[in-house]
Amino acid sequence: MDKYLAERTKLVDASGIRKIWALAASLSNPIDFSIGQPDFDVPDRLKVIAQKAIAGGQNKYTLTAGDPLLCNRIAEHLKTEFGWNEPEVLVTSGVSGGLLLVFMALVNPGDEVIIPDPYFVIYKHVIAMLEGKSVFVDSYPDFELPTRRIAEAIGPKTKIIVINSPCNPTGRAYSPEQLQALARIAAENQILVLSDEIYDKFCYDRAHSSIAGYYDRTILLRGFSKSYGMPGWRLGYAAAQEPLKDIIEQMTKMQQYTFVCAPGPFQKAAIEALDYDISDLINSYRKKRDMIYAGLKDKFELVRPEGAFYAFLRAPGGSASQFVEKAISNNVLIIPGCVFSEKDTHFRISYATSDEKIEQGIEILRKLA
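The structure corresponding to this sequence follows.
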């Protein structure tokens, strides 16, 4: 059958996260620290809006760019947050859908994309499928934004710098000072910045900072999946201001021939979600973060997560893959760092689970350490 397959299929492997998640189905009541989705459900008020939209027959295509009311509300929020003038907005099928569209719109064969390592798993695979080149910039051991190394990595073929804050898998949330430094580097070289902010609501120690407030050549990706417990609804958005509006327009054109549009009835609920208070949910996740950090910091090398719902720990013995096998044999599902990195020294914990499971998992991991 290989003779029928496109060459690009050989450039990517099946997601290591999904492999672990599939394994969970074969275990009896595992402690699942593997998958990055909230353990809370969609708030009832938002469910009701979606249900009314479905029952009311609002189940057809929306405009490719999204429900106009939702696009306008997103634009108003961005004007308030960043002072943007008439931002261009595209509602996407999740932030992952936005990532595919933006890379399709920008990456030519041979183009280089700078990515701090560790990184979200999708980036390098989509870039590879488009015959671009990922240039990984080491952020170990503290996972701060490696601005000096990024500046050194810029070359004549560099087109985009990708950042993800708060970060999956490390939980780092970049400071305004770090983002301003990166903005200066990008501006000096006239390079685009793609800012993946799917976890923007999950900041525990200070307010979320975005490079979009400092650099006008930023393409912003945000979503509703994590913050409102709706990953299966597939809703996100891409946005930019002048001088990058044409990029959003080209992404919209690409969406016409791929996703067509984001799910219609769920966009109605997203309008309400933009102003829905989730501070109680964020506070509960701050507590989970504190449990993980307090429970494991004396047994593992661990940078205190500042956002998202992940921790990235150094594996005892040096091989994360071997430690993950040991953890799984003890009914704890974690992800080896090589899924998110060019190294295999760390493993990722997703603490998006119950406090009871977190306590059980901490106890087992401490014993394995």
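The two ends are 45 Å apart (CA to CA).
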